[in-house]
């Protein structure tokens, strides 16, 4: 009996890790991370973005899991739908922001320079190296995006199994393992997403701008469709 229980627990935890990996490949998750990663040149930085998303995602799942396990509360379908709608709004903002930053980096402006008694201006645009510099500093934005995703439909995906686990300790461990899987999966996906931005940033600037616009539009259009589905058509 002890062997059977151990095998069942191990299987459940292994399933949690696999589901976490798979969960990272959902369209809304990839859209959000793509919009953020499009601002990055460095593939290591891109993978860290995915890791931060996974951490935020795990935090919210763990908190919701505590409520479900110990307070026996469930997220209603109406609340879940509204949370999904909020994810859509977030995707719209991320996509629009990605396109705006790309456009802003190419905007011409002038700087005044003085040479003795002579003052003149030089019109120019910021090159890609200048545009990238502020984005080397990782912000908590990716964590916040992950938190919002964790509160939305992903909670329902995970919590379909959590209430079936008799042990509260195993159920909490399942959430952690699920989170580790989502962190690993999203770091891998962010790394892959970051590769085309990395390899085109210096030599193929036009192509780089094109895929950055595509990433922004992907997030923007998907966000609009989610908002329509959960706030307008509902």
Write a brief structural summary.
Helices cover about 75% and strands about 5% of the residues. With about 230 residues, it is mainly alpha-helical.
SSE layout:
Blueprint: H1 2-23, H2 27-37, H3 43-71, H4 77-105, E1 109-115, E2 118-124, H5 128-132, H6 141-151, H7 153-159, H8 168-200, H9 205-232
Antiparallel strand pairs: 1-2
Helix pairs in contact: 1-8, 2-4, 2-6, 2-8, 2-9, 3-6, 3-7, 3-8, 4-6, 4-9, 8-9
* Poorly predicted runs of 5 or more residues: 123-136
The total of helices stands at 9
Describe the biggest sheet? 2 strands, antiparallel
Write down the Rg: 22 Å
| Overall helicity | over 70%
Which structural class fits the helix and strand makeup? mainly alpha
Beta strand %: 5-15%
């Amino acid at each position: 009996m002890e062997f059977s229980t151990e095998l069942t627990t191990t299987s459940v935890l292994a399933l949690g890790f696999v589901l976490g990996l798979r969960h990272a490949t959902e369209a809304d998750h990839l859209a959000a991370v793509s919009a953020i990663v499009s601002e990055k040149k460095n593939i290591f930085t891109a993978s860290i973005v995915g890791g931060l998303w996974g951490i935020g995602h795990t935090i919210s799942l763990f908190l919701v899991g505590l409520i479900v396990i110990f307070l026996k509360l469930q997220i209603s379908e109406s609340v879940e739908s509204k949370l999904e709608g909020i994810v859509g709004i977030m995707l719209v903002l991320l996509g629009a922001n990605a396109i705006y930053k790309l456009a802003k980096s190419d905007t011409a402006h002038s700087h005044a320079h003085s040479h003795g008694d002579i003052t003149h201006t030089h019109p120019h645009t910021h090159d890609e190296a200048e545009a990238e510099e502020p984005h080397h500093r990782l912000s908590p934005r990716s964590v916040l995006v992950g938190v919002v995703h964790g509160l939305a439909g992903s909670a329902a995906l995970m919590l379909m199994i959590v209430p079936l686990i008799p042990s509260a300790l195993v159920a909490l461990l399942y959430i952690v393992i699920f989170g580790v899987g989502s962190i690993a999966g999203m770091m891998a996906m962010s790394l892959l997403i970051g590769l085309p931005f990395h390899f085109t940033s210096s030599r193929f600037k036009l192509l780089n701008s094109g895929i950055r616009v595509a990433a922004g539009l992907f997030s923007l259009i998907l966000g609009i469709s989610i908002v329509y589905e959960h706030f307008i058509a509902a």
